[in-house]
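quick one, 180 residues, struct below
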Amino acid sequence: MNSIDIWETSIEDFPISFQNLTGLTKISIEGRGMFSLPSFISKMSKLSSICFNNSRLLIPKPSSSTWSSNVKRIFIQQENNNLFEYFPIVLTWSDNEDELDQSGSNFKILLECLEECCRLREVPLFNCKSLEEIRGIAPTLVILDALYCKSLNSSIRSMLVNQVLLFFLALIFYLLLHYC
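---
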């Protein structure tokens, strides 16, 4: 078994025997209820993708500085606005996460703690209609998809456009130095 999908059930947490699924690579939870993520999830060494869709999460704080070092993709879509409650904790799950997908979520501010993600390369924010402000961007970020984020203020839009232009100028300069 490589993945587990939990859709619209009354399940509120994983039983302790869940930790015996050593080959698990993906967990996907979708529902409107409360879901408690167990701390033993950090011991699942092959787990690389965690997806939550409209579940109200109860997330334990990790006992160490990082959880599973193999988690590379985290997808969280929330219609409610509890992003502030768990976002900083989610970012401590792994030091290898390269994608944090927030597409379609209903939050107003992308928090500063994103700057601390030293390996984060992609942050899809597609269709986050309530997003007004981006306070932090990871230094390693390559893709930030903010299409259809209709509430973004004009200064944030300008900042994003300027960063894209600087990226392309740096890329052109690099190519000229190394290949001409």
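The chain has one domain: 3-179.
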